[in-house]
Every structure is written in C-alpha cells, then in structure tokens.
Amino acid sequence: LRERFCRHCAAGRLFGMEQQHLLELLRRTTVHGESNSALLIGPRGSGKSALLNHVLKDLREMEQVRENLLEVHLNGLLQTNDSVALKEITRQLQLENVVGDKVFVNVSSFKNTFPCYFSRWV
C-alpha cells in the first residue's frame, strides 16, 4: 500500500475495482433506494477511509445522488453502542426534536441544511 501511495498515479488507479464497486453500490443505494450495506475491513493505514472519502467525493459530484445523499459520520471509538450512535445520527441530521412520528425542527436551520428537500415541501 505504501508503494501505491508513494507512486504518482490517478486516484482511480490507486483503488482499482474496489472503488468502482463501492461507488456503484452507494450510487444505487441513494438513487434507487436499495438497502445495501458495505463493510470495509483492513489493517490500520490500509486506505479504508481514503477509499471511502474518495468514493463520497465522486458521489457528491453526481447530480442524481446529490439530491438524495445524507451523510452521517460516526466514530467507533466515540459511538460505542446503538443508543449513542442514534443520538449522534439525529444530532447530525438535526432531528433532535422528534416526538413519535413527528419531527419538530427550526425551519430556518433546516432550510439552510437541506435546501433541495425544503423547496419540494413548500
């Protein structure tokens, strides 16, 4: 892996087929609403985060995906159980004021965060 990072090559060649497979999986998930999962396993420093960040960058550039993409970043060292992880997800999606099936949000902050969704609802 060190050789791959040290050589000057395009990012697409750096990750190879792994990048294309993950990109297509996440694209189908966001565009078609498929319920897909991906598990990236590897030793520390093997490029898992770099691969994911590169694929997310490519996804953000796709217009179809950009309309449906919601990103939540979790840290396994901080979010150690489901309860803590769900609290962090609701915080990042600004859904802290959920009661039952109703969500109470600050409209101005929601409008600034999710302008494409807000314009559809109004």
Automatic annotation (TrEMBL):
One of its GO terms (cellular component) is nuclear origin of replication recognition complex. GO terms for molecular function: DNA replication origin binding. Gene3D superfamilies: P-loop containing nucleotide triphosphate hydrolases. Residues 18-62 form the Orc1-like AAA ATPase domain. One of its GO terms (biological process) is DNA replication initiation. This is Origin recognition complex subunit 4. It comes from Zonotrichia albicollis. The gene is ORC4.
